[in-house]
Design a protein that fits this description.
The complex is a heterodimer. Helices cover 32% and strands 9% of the residues of chain A. By secondary structure, chain A is of the alpha/beta class. In chain A, β6, α9 and β7 form a beta-alpha-beta unit. The longest helix of chain A is centred in the N-terminal third of the chain and has 21 residues. By secondary structure, chain B is α/β, with parallel strands linked by helices. Chain B folds into three domains: 268 residues, FAD/NAD(P)-binding domain (3-Layer(bba) Sandwich), CATH 3.50.50; 55 residues, no CATH class; 89 residues, D-Amino Acid Oxidase, Chain A, domain 2. In chain B, a hairpin with a 5-residue loop joins β9 and β10. Chain B starts with a helix and ends in a 10-residue tail after the last helix. About 3% of the residues of chain B have low confidence. The chains are: A alpha/beta, B alpha/beta. At the A-B interface, α1, α2, α7, α8 and α9 of A face α8 and β8 of B.
């Protein structure tokens, strides 16, 4: 997570005789600024009234189920028109772009994707998928993993792509050559460790991952793990923040350990 | 003045003292009644005779529907599922009794934190599969409004189990069962092993099974704290104390075959406070034994196992604490970032820890070498003599390593068949077990919690059938042996 929200404990709740354990996660930060006042008021009310608490829980649940709804599998489309069309439709619906083999990029451009143009590509495998900024998550990845000839996948700045999603990517090991994870807030070095299955990978972009604890060291270890792959990402200088838009163009050729 | 005083008394909310208890005094005249009422009022208002002697806020409540003995991951998981599966909000009052609020000896915090689906029993595989789903969606299950989301630090690197010639056939049949249940496991030959993990010495390895998805290791402390936080938000009471006594009643009953047995029901649990002789009797309907390494002791308190050996009354709960060591070492040339948790044919296991070439691992000792579970002191000679040679033989890079630290923890070891005990006791009708998992309790805790909650609320297992793990198998002698314990 980029910056965990601090938990505010305005009123020490009655713990029924519980003393806090010495290793308890305590993160109470004094709130600053007026935008926190609204949150404080809400929390104050939620601590005292069951209705407010239930309402907030309900709203939280709604947010979560919205993401799940967007990531459902299109099994009917998959059965009827094949996995390529289903995968492409999924990506376009999420707001990404798709490139079939031998064709041009198809963008979603805001409106609902026209299914007619996709239907003509039933037997054409999907070559590249650009799912940047899409709300794709673990379940939604099902639609992408069926694309067995996928060569390039871009998951830049996807807010719900995390280590669990990366652990599923081994299914694309035969074909995937290019993968970009730049700017994903939930990807850490633990998920990057399971990219070792992708032996055909030639280009991997791991720049600007806020959850990675040590970007320089991670880059070195990734280069050792994938000797044939060009790993773009962290600068050797730790203090500099790499810019998400312009990826670092320095081609550091990996030297096998 | 009199009416004002009554309102004041009612407004203070002093419960349990109602003026209606004076109904028995209707034989007295009007003056008598007034003086009685005055006396009650005087005792209730402050400064009167009815002051509670001391503060009882540290004591558990006097009544609770369910008392869970043990506040580790299994106990908290049962509490969570009980509150989640109850039919009406607030229907069940749950009390969790934990003797050590620092969890200094609890197996949960000292665990290596691995989770795998590579078991030989279908029930174990299903338990692990559900638990991995739970962990993946932990922020949906354990979300508390306004608290930061949980970060389990899950490493999805998988488990690699190596098998020699003798074990290869069993490994293969195990992998078949695992794939049938839906686990993503693949078999590797020594050749493939050498290609994928060149740092392994494959001499003596005939076959290996590698978990591709849903296996790895995580931070057990985070899971414990997340469960605690959520469970408290759901209204479960916590108490720090030790269970010292069960007060139960017995009934002599006759079975259908005419045999006489004694059925017991626990009515009260005596919870003794830390560092004092003070105790609180808690009236309860159901007791759940999730005390981990101390479950055997708790079961003895309930009278389980007191009887002639060979009978159902005489069958003890065969769970005892066993000490296991975990060593942390640094090896600069060790296996890279891709290394899974490797479990060797000899019983030695290790995994990476973090980015800095630190590793941790250990080995299960044989029956003769079992260390004394009296305390959690670490025996470093065990590493020198038993763990390191086998490690270095399998992974040649580990010939030069430096031990950084070590710790010890307990397994709640089931001496009968090393698998968990779940479900009610046949004779003590309201004691349910959730213990005895012999080293894989943490990874199955979410699913086992749900199973026990279903058993308590519905009377049978609904989602995963754990009838094979009931207590009665100890009496009937039916072992459900798990072949992949290390």
């Amino acid at each position: 997570m980029a910056a965990p929200r601090a938990s505010l404990n305005l009123v020490a709740p009655v713990w029924n005789g519980v003393t806090k354990s010495i290793r308890d996660l305590s993160s109470s930060v004094a709130p600053k600024g007026s935008q926190k006042k609204g949150k404080r008021l809400l929390q104050f009310l939620a601590d005292r009234f069951y209705d407010v608490e239930a309402l907030r829980e309900y709203l939280l649940q709604k947010q979560v189920s919205k993401v799940h709804q967007e990531n459902r599998s299109f099994t009917y489309i998959k059965e009827r028109y094949g996995p390529y069309v289903a995968g492409a439709y999924f990506v376009l619906k999420q707001g990404g772009a798709v490139k079939f083999q031998g064709q041009e990029w198809i963008q979603s451009s805001g409106r609902r994707p026209s299914s007619l143009e996709l239907l003509s590509f039933q037997a054409v495998p999907v070559e590249s998928v650009d799912a940047s900024d899409c709300a794709i998550n673990y379940e939604g990845l099902d639609n992408l993993l069926a694309l067995k000839e996928l060569q390039s996948l871009s998951l830049q700045r996807c807010p719900h792509v995390d280590d669990w999603c990366l652990s599923r990517l081994y299914q694309l090991a035969d074909s995937l050559q290019e993968l970009s994870l730049a700017g994903c807030p939930r990807v850490s070095e633990r998920g990057l460790a399971c990219l070792h299955h992708l032996q055909n990978l030639r280009r991997l972009d791991i720049s600007d991952l806020p959850a990675v604890s040590n970007p320089g060291l991670t880059q070195i270890l990734m280069e050792e793990m994938l000797p044939n792959c060009e790993v773009l990402g962290a600068d050797w200088a730790q203090g500099l923040k790499s810019r998400p838009e312009k990826q670092s163009q320095d081609t550091a050729s990996p030297t096998p350990a | 003045m009199f009416r004002g005083a009554v309102h004041l008394c009612a407004g203070r909310g002093h419960l349990g003292r109602r003026l209606s208890t004076l109904r028995g005094g209707s034989a007295l005249g009007w003056a008598g009644k007034v003086s009685e009422i005055k006396k009650t009022l005087q005792s209730v208002l402050p400064g009167g005779a009815w002051n509670s002697l001391y503060d009882t806020s540290h004591l558990p409540p006097e009544q609770s529907d369910v008392v869970i003995v043990g506040g580790g991951v299994l106990g908290l998981s049962v509490a969570y599922w009980l509150k989640r599966l109850e039919k009406q909000r607030g229907a069940i009052r749950v009390l969790v009794v934990e003797q050590d609020h620092t969890y200094s000896q609890a197996s949960t915090g000292l665990s290596v934190g691995g989770i795998r689906q590579q078991f030989s029993l279908p029930e174990n595989i299903q338990l692990s599969l559900f638990s991995v789903n739970f962990l993946r969606n932990i922020n949906d299950y354990l979300a508390v409004v306004d608290d930061p989301p949980l970060d389990l630090q899950f490493n999805p690197s998988g488990y690699l189990l190596l098998a020699s010639e003798e074990g290869a056939a069993i490994l293969e049949s195990n992998v078949k069962v695992q794939r049938q249940e839906g686990a993503k496991v693949c078999l590797m030959s020594p050749e493939q092993l050498r290609n994928k993990f060149p740092w392994i010495n494959t001499e003596g390895v005939a076959l290996a099974s590698y978990g591709l998805e849903g296996e790895g290791w995580f931070d057990p402390w985070c899971l414990l704290q997340g469960l605690r936080r959520k469970v408290q938000a759901m209204g479960v009471h916590f108490c720090h104390g030790e269970v010292t006594r069960f007060v139960s009643s017995s009934n002599r009953m006759e079975t259908t075959s005419g045999e006489e047995i004694t059925l017991k029901r626990i009515h009260e649990v005596h919870v003794k406070m830390d560092h004092s002789v003070e105790y609180q009797p808690v009236e309860c309907a159901i007791v759940i034994n999730a005390a981990g390494a101390w479950s055997g002791r708790v079961a003895e308190l309930a009278g389980i196992g007191k009887g002639p050996p060979g009978t159902l009354q005489g069958t003890k709960l065969p769970v005892e604490p066993r000490k296991r060591y975990v060593y942390v070492w640094h090896c600069p040339q060790g296996p890279g970032l891709e290394s899974p948790l490797v479990a060797d044919t000899s019983g030695v296991y290790f995994r990476r820890d973090g980015l800095g070439n630190n590793y941790l691992g250990g080995c299960s000792p044989t029956e003769e070498e079992e260390p004394d579970p009296e305390n959690l002191e670490v025996d470093h000679d065990f590493f020198q003599n038993k763990v390191w040679p086998r490690l270095a033989w399998r992974i040649p890079a580990f010939e030069s390593l430096k031990v950084r630290s070590a710790w010890a923890g307990y397994y709640d070891y089931n001496t009968f068949d090393q698998n968990g005990v779940v479900g009610p006791h046949p004779l003590v009708a309201n004691m349910y077990f959730a213990t005895g998992f012999s080293g894989h309790g943490l990874q199955q805790a979410p699913a086992v919690g749900r199973a026990v909650a279903e058993m308590v609320l519905e009377g049978r297992f609904q989602t995963i059938n754990l009838n094979a793990f009931l207590f009665s198998r100890f009496f009937l002698g039916e072992k459900v042996q798990e072949h992949n314990i290390f």
